[in-house]
Specification:
Layout (H helix, E strand, L loop, with lengths): L7 E3 L1 H7 L12 E6 L3 H10 L3 E7 L10 E8 L4 E7 L18 E3 L3 E4 L2 H4 L3 E2 L4 H4 L5 H12 L3 E2 L17 E2 L6 E4 L5 E2 L3 H8 L1 E7 L15 E6 L3
Parallel strand pairs: 2-5, 8-9
Antiparallel strand pairs: 1-2, 3-4, 4-5, 6-7, 7-11, 10-13, 11-12, 13-14
């Protein structure tokens, strides 16, 4: 299902897969599947065939998703388990992930790979706050509750300037899913790291995704960097 729909799993489930079994006492309580709009109907049909029926839907005009890359969120259930289907308004299922409130949850699992945006921080349970929700007016008590949830799971929020040992961490720098600061792990019998444009195109039909978490640039009190996410598409 994941491969045929160009879908990924993100949120707590993806983070839990990145962390060691020993010393991680929590387990995810939900499943979030991200899918591009072009294959969303196919995904819902496939899940319906597995016994999952639609429970509710929240659209982009919902205050929580306005100015984001989320087109809608559909909750499905089989009577025992529930799944959130997050439909991207872009051609890439993964673009809303770079608008999450914290870098610690900017990860995903596809049919072939495990991806982590900020491995130098995430694997040490460190996180930056993403200025995007604040800039776009999406920061709410729900966002605060989500951040407190991760703090209770051992995540520690840090300032950007305190983790500048790696130039790819800075919140005012443009990042790419193919740059040297991310972690791709190809899932095979013998896993190996990769982050090539060819692999991204093969999996998602795009060339790259660029993002800036943004906010006040380090040591520049009077400036501001606008958060943004841009999908680089093949236009051949």
């Amino acid at each position: 299902i994941m491969r045929s729909c160009d879908a990924v799993v993100s949120g707590s489930t993806a983070l839990r897969l990145l962390l060691p079994e020993i010393g991680t006492p929590w387990n995810p309580t939900d499943l979030d599947i991200y899918v591009p709009r072009s294959t969303s109907i196919q995904m819902l049909r496939r899940l319906k065939a597995e016994g999952y029926n639609r429970v509710s839907e929240k659209r982009q005009d919902d205050a929580r998703y306005r100015n984001s890359d989320v087109a809608s969120v559909i909750l499905v259930s089989n009577g025992r388990n529930m799944i959130d289907i997050i439909i991207s308004r872009t051609s890439a299922a993964i673009s809303p992930i770079f608008q999450f409130h914290s870098t610690v949850v900017m990860n995903f699992v596809s049919a072939d790979t495990v991806f982590c945006c900020y491995p130098n921080l995430t694997l040490r349970l460190l996180s930056l706050v993403n200025a995007g929700p604040l800039y776009n007016g999406l920061f709410s008590m729900t966002t605060m509750d989500a951040m407190w949830k991760y703090i209770s799971r051992g995540v520690r929020y840090v300032r950007c300037k305190d983790v500048h040992k790696s130039h790819t961490i800075c919140k005012s720098k443009t990042r790419f899913v193919t740059d040297a600061g991310v972690m791709w792990l190809r899932i095979q019998e013998h896993p190996y790291p990769t982050h090539s444009t060819v692999e991204v195109f093969r999996q998602f039909g795009i060339l790259d995704v660029q993002w800036i978490t943004g906010g006040v640039p380090c040591d520049l009190a009077g400036g501001f960097c606008r958060p943004r996410v841009h999908v680089v598409e093949d236009e051949s």
